[in-house]
Amino acid sequence: MQGMDSALRLMTPLLLACLAGLYSERAGVFDIGLEGKMLMAAFTAATVAALTNSAWLGLLAGIGGALTLSLIHGLASITFRGNQLISGVAINFLASGLTVLLGIKIFGLGGRTPSLQGSGRFQEITLPFADALSGVPVIGPIYAQLISGHSILVYVAVLCVPLTWWVLFRTRFGLRLRAVGENPASVDTAGVSVTRQRYVAVAICGVLCGIAGAYLATGLSAGFVKEMTAGRGFIALAALIFAKWRPWGALFATLLFGLLESIANQYPNLDLGFVTIPSMFMNALPYILTVIILAGFVGRAIPPRAGGEPYVKER
Known about the structure:
Layout: H1 2-26, H2 34-52, H3 55-79, H4 84-107, H5 130-133, H6 139-147, H7 152-170, H8 172-182, H9 184-189, H10 194-220, H11 232-242, H12 247-266, E1 270-271, E2 276-277, H13 279-294
Antiparallel strand pairs: 1-2
Helix pairs in contact: 1-7, 1-10, 1-11, 1-12, 2-3, 2-4, 2-10, 2-11, 3-4, 3-10, 7-8, 7-12, 11-12, 11-13, 12-13
């Protein structure tokens, strides 16, 4: 039970980033800058939370930081029709350097922020009747120990999965967004602005990355440290491919990654009796799975047909 509880916490930033990439790539804008957006969001959230002692203001700042980088990516790849992959790499480098530079300038702590305490962090929430139901066999421990006791952003991340499914597959907006990623010329012919749809998708991507980064700094951890995303943005991209660009698949893929990271944290040296798996291998498990997934061992994953291609309106 403890391992699954930890897996849910570790899954949250991955799930939010995976859903962020889902919106963007479904609209035809590939985004490998998820890592940089999460990193910038974590820094801005921790900085504002440290200065104001408010996790909620930190969350807004985190969303603002990631949204700014998202709009830069949109400007480069949609308006100026630049290479989307190069733009994403540039955003990752920009966030990596800028967060350390600003951290040193503002706090003078080598690029990190002061430790967050009290209302500067999102606290765990005990759901109604959790204590009363804890003694009930099977259901009680699941509700009291696994479902209850997380910060509000964990519940927001999980609720985003059915919300994303409904938006993408049950609304006119979702139909248009998916069509833009498959055949933008047809959407344009129908009188729908391809540019507007893609900018909206990129903005949603920024908001979700902002929540993911804010959770890293003000929920999962107690402040910002250099490169604290630790490749989670790239793992989220691998999970997106594993999920084949579907929201429910994203939930199970990121839960798998979270579970592997949880196992690595709980069993740094896993003793199997006949052999002991060293801590270095356990810590590398999520990244090994990422390589396996990207190598194509999950079956054929077909991305949106117009993904990565700038749209040029025919005159």
